[in-house]
User: What shape does this take?
Amino acid sequence: MILPIVTYPDKRLKVVSTPVSEFNAELHTFLDDMYETMIQTNGIGLAAIQVDRAIDVLIINLPNDDEEGTQDKANLLEIINPTITYSEGTTVYQEGCLSVPKFYEDVERFEKIGITYHDRHGNECSLDAEELLSIAIQHEIDHLDGKLFIERLSYGRRKKFEKEYKRMQKEKKTGK
Ligand code: Y12
Ligand code: CO
Assistant: This one.
């Protein structure tokens, strides 16, 4: 089932998510719905709060390195109750978010991270991430903390964003 995506400036995106304690069939159906929703909307990462569930769940499916950039379901990561255990260096990447449509901006994050998390069955897992995967995980963990990538912009860039976003929303409403 495709779920509606909550978009900025909806206040629901500010809610801090809570840990998952039951790894049951309902969670599995929800994870499947999140995947369907992310693929349908051309996303590579999605947090549960973006579909209005304030639980510590995120999924990531990076595109392959080939020209088509196809997303293999075999590479899908389902990350539940994540904790960053270490971080190293800094890097800048132009990010986008399904909850902030049509806006992309450079954001500084850790270059490498290590996380521990649960899989859909409640097994404890760990992962070392770098490059795009590291950025995607940090972006999605921010969502679990009620934080959007636009909140990491400088004051000037944030102001520019608010102006552009308001103009786009007005255009959408009036059909111009
Ligand atoms: C690097 C940086 C950020 C992430 C987080 C995950 N972000 C996304 O998955 C963004 C998806 C996205 C998709 C769009 O396409 C459509 O909506 C059809 C899009 O385009 C428009 O809004 C028009 C923008 C963002 C992972 C890795
Ligand atoms: Co996002």
